[in-house]
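Example record

The entry below shows one chain as it appears in the dataset: sequence first, then structure tokens.
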Amino acid sequence: MAKDKQQKRDVAGAEAASGKMRRKEFEKELAKLQVELTSLQTWVQATGARIIVVFEGRDTAGKGGVISRITARTSPRVYRHVALPAPSDREKTQVYAQRYIAHFPAGEIVLFDRSWYNRAGIERVMGFCTEEESERFLLVTTAIEREMVVQNGIILRKYFLDISQDEQRRRFEARINDPIKQWKLSPMDIESVRRWWDYTAAYQRMIQATHTPEAPWHIVPADDKRRARLNLIRHLLDSVPYKKVGTDLPKIIPKPQPRPKGAPEGLRAGEQIPSHY
């Protein structure tokens, strides 16, 4: 116990020395934002609003982390997390944006953990598409976002989480040494370290070509991942014109029906799992 307390003090001391936000402060502010996220959820349910949130960024920048904080206290029926795998052989024959359009919202908030912008990032850098295909994608994407999304009444927010080269290397090393995080590693991710400047050029071109008044890119400095999460969620909430909607809550909890004569206290059918803890 004393050792655990000392470790916590050491971590807190290191965070204070680095200038990064402490966990206690982060959790306090996050709790406030999560209440607001549920208010946004109620508004979407009441109005049928449609929202798309695109999360792009460098590997290890924290896209999954901020999405998990958004969905931790909200309904998966309203906040829908979409992280598509590599396209199937059939999907490769479709119009490029087709498999993403299939996940567009219907009275819900769709959180794209990477998106159609793969074509301008990883696909371009790793040679999964040609330079011509990537440039054509950039040319048509602004029209798709304007005509099919924004002018169709869908609220679109695009975020790019950016970290420094040193911080990315530190996070990859942490993943290598942490069994809980090793599943996040792939040869493709590691290659992004070596091709840092190729990715920099690709992302710069992507943002430059698709940053429009209708669908601007919002850059999130993410070396301090806790501040990045809070700042992104705060911006998202501030940018959506939602209103607080009243909910019909029960005045009292009704009394349970009386226990029938001879009824057992718990369930007797099935097999109970062993109690290890």
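Notes for this example: The longest strand covers residues 155-162. Residues 45-239 form a domain with the Rossmann fold fold (CATH 3.40.50.300).
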